[in-house]
Design goal:
It is built from 16 helices and 21 strands. By secondary structure, it is an alpha+beta fold. It has two domains: 244 residues, Dipeptide-binding Protein, domain 1 (Alpha-Beta Complex), CATH 3.90.76.10; 219 residues, Dipeptide-binding Protein, Domain 3 (Dipeptide-binding Protein, domain 3). Helix 9 runs antiparallel to helix 11 and helix 15 runs antiparallel to helix 16. The protein starts with 10 loop residues before the first strand and ends with a strand. Keywords: Signal, Transport. One of its GO terms (molecular function) is peptide transmembrane transporter activity.
Length: 537
């Protein structure tokens, strides 16, 4: 994604009708008479309140029900949403102009004050938002103090200059701030709607400002949305009904896709990849995704508190074998934490990448021996992962590599999601499976995760030099300077090994050939139903 803002002078983007991101049906296209889509989501949404969302299942639905200041196009580039233009002279004070025809589903105008209310609500400790930290990451004035209960929500650095002008003050310059406003956590909610009832997110009660409204919801069965006739670009919405089916078993979702019950799956079983390619060519997609699968080491206690142990373990993970043989669905080896597809990142070659696996294994043996482990005193550790066929397959492969090359005795431990999260949060592990899919398309979404104060720092990595270089990156005025800082940060991660990046995600999914307008190359998998349509078949 290219940044839509200048980082050295006044940044300004003005929208026009051609910049709206909606269904663009080519001239001469014959549409199906029935414009109804069935989308698979991986689980029952935890909440349809943007401030309470925690994962992809609800985010996919929320993107249809609400709209933020900006959207993303099929390439992941920023385009206007509720805002038609934005500007900043110093990357610290930002002004957004809102379109005057943006309306809530009840026909009332969407105003700057709606965003003020929504963002204050996001950081208010009473809301208990799992994504409140995102406002602090964005650097909005007083966000962290409010989250910590040290300031009132109305002290947040966001004000309504008038009904259609929103002013945001950051605590430091942030060139990519506009990109962050595409995140679902910054979507507006209507105050009157939220305060009307604790059940305001139910069908018939939820009032959003997105292209669709919630018509029906049967928990663990389906969510149905239909067009919001008050949406500012409703004239370009083609799909008249979208049904989301929560199915947490990939094999079950794939079976229903093959039976014709589903038009798009969120994924498919990796062991079916070759068969699917053979049986339904042209319907199997594996584009790169803005995400990294990795193992986090406990840097504070146990054998992995020793940097030499962590580095040895990381070096002996055969990433090439993992992606080509164990996975085999288009994934790429992760030689860095930041994926190659990330905007604004040109990685320097990793020494690991330039060595053969035999050379890496030999160096790893030397490191582990120096740490005091060997045939007479084998390293023993536990590898924890959350229950999943795929995670288990990878864990077995890695444990085998560690045993074969280093003589490590690995105990594999799987836990259900809630127990796993508790173990992760309390640091009750030696090595733990983890992954990160970027919240925005810029290297900092990955690298800040390992700063000493970040709540997502699973390994409890604490390195002042690392913190310093990332703080410096956020003040740089050019992409080149930031890229240099990011490569320095990646070098520290490689040497200190608080984590072992394993592979870069692909976004495997199945899509019916008659469905058009799906943004398959969006690296963050941002897919609005309003851009899609069904051709006659």
């Amino acid at each position: 994604m290219k940044h839509s803002v200048s980082v050295t002078c006044c940044a300004l983007l003005v929208s026009s009708i051609s910049l709206s991101y909606a269904a663009e049906v080519p001239s001469g296209t014959v549409l199906a008479e029935k414009q109804e889509l069935v989308r698979h989501i991986k689980d029952e949404p935890a909440s349809l309140d943007p401030a309470k969302a925690v994962g992809l299942p609800e985010i996919q639905v929320i993107r249809d029900l609400f709209e933020g200041l900006v959207n993303q196009n099929e390439k992941g580039e920023i385009v206007p949403g509720v805002a038609t233009q934005w500007k900043s002279n110093d990357n610290r004070i930002w002004t957004f102009t809102l379109r005057d025809n943006a309306k809530w589903a009840d026909g009332t105008p969407v105003t700057a004050q709606d965003f003020v209310y929504s963002w204050q609500r996001l950081v208010d400790p009473k809301t208990l938002s799992p994504f409140a930290w995102f406002a602090a990451l964005a650097g909005i004035n007083n966000a962290q103090a409010i989250i910590d209960g040290k300031a009132a929500p109305d002290q947040l650095g966001v004000t309504a200059v008038d009904a259609h002008t929103l002013k945001i003050q950051l605590d430091k310059p942030l060139p990519w701030f506009v990109n962050l406003t595409a995140n679902f956590a910054f979507f507006p909610v209507q105050k009157a709607n939220v305060e009307s009832s604790k059940e305001w997110t139910k069908p018939g009660k939820l009032i959003g400002n997105g292209a669709y409204v919630l018509k029906e919801r049967v928990v663990n069965e389906k969510l149905v949305v239909v067009p919001n006739t008050h949406y500012w670009d409703n004239a370009k919405t083609v799909l008249q009904k979208v049904t989301f089916l929560p199915i947490n078993q990939e094999s079950a979702a794939t079976k229903r896709y093959l039976a014709g019950d589903i038009d798009i799956t969120e994924s498919f079983p990796k062991n079916m990849y070759q068969k699917l390619l053979k049986d339904i060519p042209g319907q199997v997609y594996t584009p790169p995704q803005l995400g990294t699968y990795y193992y986090a080491f406990n840097t504070q206690k146990g054998p992995t508190a020793d940097q030499r142990v962590r580095l040895a373990l990381s070096m002996t993970i055969d990433r090439r074998l993992m992606t080509e043989k164990v996975l085999g669905t288009g994934e790429k080896p992760a030689w860095h934490f930041t994926p190659d597809v990330t905007a604004g990142f040109t990685p320097e070659p990793s020494p690991f990448e330039q060595m053969s696996q035999e050379e890496l294994n030999a160096q790893a043996k030397t490191l582990l021996s120096a740490a005091g482990y060997g045939p007479q005193k084998p390293l023993k550790l536990t590898l924890l992962y959350n229950t999943s066929e795929n995670h288990q397959k990878i864990a077995i492969a890695v444990a085998s590599m560690w045993k074969k090359n280093l003589g490590v005795d690995v105990k594999l431990q799987n836990q259900e999601w809630k127990t796993y999260i508790d173990s992760r949060n309390t640091g009750n592990f030696d090595v733990i499976r983890a992954s990160w899919v970027g919240d925005y398309n810029e290297p900092s979404t990955f690298l800040t995760l390992l700063t000493s104060t970040h709540s997502g720092n699973i390994s409890r990595f604490n390195n002042p030099a690392y913190d310093k270089v990332l703080a410096q990156a956020s003040t740089e005025n050019t992409v080149k300077a930031r890229n240099a800082d990011y490569n320095t940060a990646e070098k520290i991660l490689m040497e200190q090994a608080p984590i072992a990046p394993i592979y870069q995600y692909t976004n495997g999914r199945l899509i019916k050939p008659w469905l058009k307008g799906y943004p398959i190359n969006n690296p963050e998998d941002v897919a609005y139903s309003r851009t899609m349509y069904i051709v006659k078949h």
